[in-house]
Design goal:
With 332 residues, the chain is α/β, with parallel strands linked by helices. 41% of the residues lie in helices and 20% in strands. It has helices at 2-7, 11-26, 40-55, 107-112, 142-152, 159-172, 183-195, 199-207, 212-223, 240-245, 256-261, 292-297, 316-331, and strands at 29-34, 59-63, 81-82, 90-96, 114-121, 132-135, 226-228, 233-238, 268-276, 279-286, 302-303, 307-312. α3 (40-55) links the parallel β1 (29-34) and β2 (59-63). The protein is globular, with a radius of gyration of 20 Å. Residues 35, 39, 41-42, 97 line the site of one manganese (II) ion.
């Protein structure tokens, strides 16, 4: 009885989905975009919705706002994501998995030029920047929302779409391990498996194809790990120099922060990435109680309670001191 209740989608969210669908049916041309520094939820959701709208014979363009990490190249129809010239006046922009307009990169310009913006997301820090905001922080991934959305369109989810949605959900839940994973997450995953996806193929591509450079980078970076707050906080720094030394790219830092978080004494893990001169991208993760989204929001970033990020425009050592001070405050 209880479970059935949980399984039903919130009525107001469902109504918003139907309003969005009406707008989609009327739109002549549609752009879909997601946040910069793309991840599995971002790319999987973009591709699945892109494929679904193409099946409706819509003129849909999936916008590339940043480089796609090599390890997502295995996804079906990845070539749908590409560069487009900015248009002055466009019908509809659909933003996926992005908490605000700035995070959309060049997509933010497309959104500003659009008559209507539909915002589909699960970040607690979402600014509701759309005309229609389908925002649900209880969804483990935007892929869950996109699954529900496509189910309400006149389209059957095929194996390619299901592969992308499974990738979106698996990556944002740490393979169904993080606290955002719900009964519903598993139900959706089960439906996707029923459609006929090859979970073994997906899992090998997502989790068992790390390059040697990536592994060497991990080893090197861990050597400089700093522990604070009675070993409850771990900090690691990735500089351009370390990347060069290991012939690695910034996308090869994927997975480093989880490694720190998974240490038994750790509550919060912090990764600082030197993106350029005076630009440091910070990632935070927590295990049980620290709300890292709150910390990142102070620096105009955001995310979720247990995973968040922000960018500090300063030199790397200063950035480390600045974020350390804020994290220490959260522990008080
Ligand atoms: P990351 O540490 O980059 O993997 O991000 C962790 C989570 O926080 C993801 O859900 C991101 O989408 C979100 N996030 C990261 N950076 C920002 C930012 N600058 N603004 C808002 N959300 C962010
Ligand atoms: Mn994301
Ligand atoms: Mn997400």
């Amino acid at each position: 009885m209880m479970r059935k209740e949980e399984n039903r989608m919130d009525k107001s969210l469902e109504n918003l989905m139907y309003r969005a669908i009406e707008i989609i049916y009327e739109a002549e041309s549609i752009y879909i975009g997601s946040h910069v520094q793309p991840d599995g939820d971002n790319i999987g959701s973009l591709l699945a919705l892109g494929m679904a709208l193409k099946k409706l014979d819509k003129n849909v363009k999936v916008l590339k706002v940043d480089n796609i990490p090599d390890y997502y190249e295995f996804l079906p129809k990845i070539e749908l994501i590409r560069d487009y010239e900015i248009e002055d006046n466009l019908d509809l922009f659909i933003a996926l998995d992005s908490s605000d307009m700035e995070r959309l990169g060049i997509g933010g310009q497309f959104a500003k030029n659009a008559n209507t913006v539909i915002n589909i997301d699960h970040h607690i820090s979402n600014t509701n920047f759309g005309d229609i905001n389908i925002v649900s922080p209880s969804a483990a991934a935007t892929g869950e929302l996109v699954y529900e959305f496509i189910n309400r369109l006149d389209v059957e989810i095929d194996v390619n779409m299901a592969t992308c949605l499974y990738t979106a959900i698996s990556t944002d839940t740490g393979s169904f391990m993080y606290s955002n994973t719900s009964y519903k997450t598993h139900l959706i995953a089960a439906e996707l498996i029923k459609i006929g996806i090859d979970t073994s193929y997906i899992n090998i591509n997502l989790y068992q194809k790390k390059s040697l450079e990536r592994t060497r980078l991990l080893i090197d970076v861990l050597k400089n790990m700093e522990m604070h707050l009675d070993n409850r906080l771990g900090i690691v720094v990735v500089t351009q120099e370390i990347l060069n030394n290991n012939n690695a790219k910034m996308e090869d830092t994927e997975g480093i922060i989880s490694f720190i978080r998974d240490i038994d004494t750790i509550e919060t893990a912090c990764l600082l990435k030197e993106m350029g001169e005076n630009e440091v991208k910070i990632s935070l993760r927590s295990k049980e109680w620290v709300d890292v989204s709150k910390i990142c929001t102070k620096f105009k970033g955001g995310g979720h309670k247990r995973a968040a990020g922000c960018t500090l425009y300063m030199e790397i050592d200063e950035a480390k001191d600045t974020i350390l001070e804020e994290i220490e405050m959260a522990f008080r």
